[in-house]
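tool_call: predict_structure(chain=1)
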Amino acid sequence: MIGTLFRVNNFFKKKKVDSDGFSLIEVVVSVTLFVIIVMSATEIFRLVIDSQRNAVATQNVQESLKYFLEVTEKEIRMAQRDDEYKCSWTLDNGQVFFLSSNSYGDILRFRNYYGECVIYSLALDGDSQRFQISRDGSSDFISPKKITIDQLRFLPREAAGKQSVVTMDIKAHSLSSSQFRSEMNIQTTLSSRFYRK
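tool_result:
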C-alpha cells in the first residue's frame, strides 16, 4: 500500500498541473479595451439617434411650410380687385393687395377668387407664432403647433395695367429642444393671374 501511495505521489510530482491564470496587467488591458469598444459603440449610436432627430425636425418644418405655401400660392395667384368695395380696406387706386403690419409681422389683405375678404397674418397661439388666415371674419390657423414662424414678410408690387406680384419671405423653426432646432428660410415670388379689370 505504501508503494502505491508513493507511485501516486510521484505521478503528481512528475505531472505538473498548469495552474497559471491571467496576470493583473492582462486583465486591466482587456477590460480597458472592452470599455473603449463599448463607449465607441454607444457614441456612434447616440450620433445616429441625434441625426435622425434633426432630420425629423427638418422634415416637419419643410412639410408644414409646403402646405402653407400651397394654400397661399393658389389664393394669391387668383386674387382680384375689389371693384364692389366689399372689403373694408379696399383701395381706390385699383390695387389688388393691401399691406399693413402688427407686432408679429406683415398683414396681407386682398379679395380672393370667391369674393371673400382674406387676411394673412401671424398670431400667437400658446408657445408658438402660427400663420392665420381670416376669410370673411372666420379665422383659422394653418401652420401646426410643432413649428413657430419667426418672420412673415410680404412685398406686393403692383403697377397700373401690369400683373401684380407678391414676394413672401418666411422664417420658421421647429419647437423641439435647442439641440434639435431646425430652422428654415424660404422666399418665393408669386404673380397674380388677374391682369385687367
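agent: The two ends are 130 Å apart (CA to CA). Proceeding to next step.
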